């Protein structure tokens, strides 16, 4: 009799633990995350467009041997959004003038956390004609 009661309580404990696990897992899905964008020797951002949640971080990585930048088009930022550019410049003109300062070399990364919803078109300074991308923040 006593043993049976203990076993039943044990079962309830397991169920409770599993429910707790599921809850924290769901919370983790809603938490901040990182999205990677490769900057390749084909002179593209891969993927070209990424969609992230407010508070998420995008990490750009130069995966080949050619250096790149990830530089926002300042005039096209969502209202109230912070400017971003590899090298952490305050403006597009500053980033352009400083290049190659702010370039991301082979194996290096640049990361930015997006706090404002909207669409962020950006480009690579030395390969601007073809190397452009968009971050969509929802
Ligand atoms: Cu480039």
From TrEMBL:
The keyword Cytoplasm does not apply. Residues 40-138 form the Blue (type 1) copper domain. One of its GO terms (cellular component) is membrane. PROSITE patterns: COPPER_BLUE, PROKAR_LIPOPROTEIN. Keywords: Copper, Electron transport, Membrane, Metal-binding, Transport. It is found in: Membrane. GO terms for molecular function: copper ion binding; electron transfer activity. Pfam families: Copper-bind (PF00127). This is Halocyanin.
């Amino acid at each position: 009799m006593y043993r049976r009661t203990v076993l039943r309580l044990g079962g309830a404990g397991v169920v409770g633990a599993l429910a707790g696990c599921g809850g924290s897992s769901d919370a983790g899905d809603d938490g901040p995350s990182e999205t990677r964008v490769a900057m390749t020797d084909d002179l593209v951002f891969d993927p070209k467009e990424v969609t992230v949640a407010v508070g998420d971080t995008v990490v750009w990585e130069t995966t080949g041997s050619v250096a790149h930048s990830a530089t926002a088009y300042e005039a096209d930022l969502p209202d109230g959004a912070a400017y971003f550019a590899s090298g952490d410049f305050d403006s597009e003109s500053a980033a352009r003038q400083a290049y190659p300062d702010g370039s991301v070399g082979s194996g290096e990364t640049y990361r930015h956390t997006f706090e404002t919803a909207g669409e962020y078109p950006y480009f690579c300074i030395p390969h601007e004609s073809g190397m452009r991308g968009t971050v969509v923040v929802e």
